[in-house]
Amino acid sequence: MRAFLYALAMSELRELTRCFPRDGRIDAILLRPARDVPISAVDEVLAIAGRGLQGDRIAARASSRAGGSNRQLTLIQAEHLPVIAALIGVPAVDPALLRRNLVVSGLNLVAARSLFKDQPLELCIGEAVRVQITGPCDPCSKMEATLGEGAYNAMRGHGGVTARVIAGGVIRVGDRVQCQRVPLLDSDENSR
Known about the structure:
Layout: H1 2-16, E1 24-31, E2 40-42, E3 44-48, E4 52-53, H2 57-60, E5 73-77, H3 81-88, H4 95-98, E6 102-105, E7 121-125, E8 129-136, H5 142-147, H6 151-155, E9 161-167, E10 169-172, E11 176-181, H7 186-190
Parallel strand pairs: 5-6
Antiparallel strand pairs: 1-2, 1-6, 1-11, 3-4, 3-10, 5-9, 7-8, 7-11, 8-9
GO molecular function: catalytic activity; molybdenum ion binding; pyridoxal phosphate binding
Pfam families: MOSC
Protein name: MOSC domain-containing protein
């Protein structure tokens, strides 16, 4: 009976992790042309599969890893910006200071990273772009100099996520962001 209840709970958890209350939206696109250079805000950008965003320093580097680096793109939750501001005691935080590529509102980015290896999730952005969340985007020590004393700790847990570009295309400010389950191939289903 205990095994049955556990299996039922896991089945429900697996189903719950696929359900999002609504779609998100791209609020800002920010490119980092080089280290320690001001961010460039743009209205649209080309996402390149396996590389990142055209014009961003990450996409300019070649990766020796198949499929590219796990950190081709960084995203931050728009709803976390007021939290960071409150924690450092300022009225607002300019997302450009945080040096993340995409500011997304309305969709929990942390939940868009699958809890189950056999149930991958992807973010579908606009018409064609698909990205896979690969992990947290922890703040760097430069946040202290940028935002003030304690900013590093204020950003911990609110620094956003890293992602890989699975399918490229154009991303525009205002684009819809959906989290979708990636269908497994028949050979994947048979191997479980």
